[in-house]
């Protein structure tokens, strides 16, 4: 049975990203803004409570990280992977990722054709239109040829395997909503060449545009704002990005 992977930091790498599309319709009904101070207080309270429970020995599975404690204390977490979406705290706590979709198993660490990716690869998974909960068949290191530009309602769940995205471009999130990334080692990112910006392959529109793996980075007006996630394996992040507001 696969074991939960341990990251290189006190907090597991967990990123809950909640984006809004910058279209006239969504601008007219822009998302409710949360009070940053109250959110920070809530996060701090959750962390302190989790640390206290660990120190007092209330939970043998306690880590001091409320997000990890939420799922690690479930002995059947592998059968209940989508419950991770209920573990978030902070600004991104409402992101559901691919919770309501099927499980997609990545079996191939390759990235030979970024424009027409092979089924079974991470790139093929993240560009699908449907909600997906993406997991990995085994330990693997993925060296991307170009930025990994994601579609909405996706979870990349690295639990149970040691998965590294390294040595090439990393992850870009733009014009999408409800993204969860958990348990990945993302490091040693490099600048990419031309990456696909637009609708998924096989549909009209879209094209190749230059991108750079900066943190954060912008790829210009055609693609809008881009948050490129890189060099984050040493940190535990829980964030919500709403995109530039008018």
Automatic annotation (TrEMBL):
<dbReference type="InterPro" id="IPR018082">
    <property type="entry name" value="AmbAllergen"/>
</dbReference>
<feature type="signal peptide">
    <location>
        <begin position="1"/>
        <end position="28"/>
    </location>
</feature>
<protein>
    <submittedName>
        <fullName>Putative pectate lyase 18</fullName>
    </submittedName>
</protein>
<keyword id="KW-0134">Cell wall</keyword>
<keyword id="KW-0964">Secreted</keyword>
<keyword id="KW-0732">Signal</keyword>
<comment type="similarity">
    <text>Belongs to the polysaccharide lyase 1 family.</text>
</comment>
<dbReference type="InterPro" id="IPR011050">
    <property type="entry name" value="Pectin_lyase_fold/virulence"/>
</dbReference>
<keyword id="KW-0456">Lyase</keyword>
<dbReference type="GO" id="GO:0030570">
    <property type="term" value="F:pectate lyase activity"/>
</dbReference>
<dbReference type="InterPro" id="IPR012334">
    <property type="entry name" value="Pectin_lyas_fold"/>
</dbReference>
<dbReference type="InterPro" id="IPR045032">
    <property type="entry name" value="PEL"/>
</dbReference>
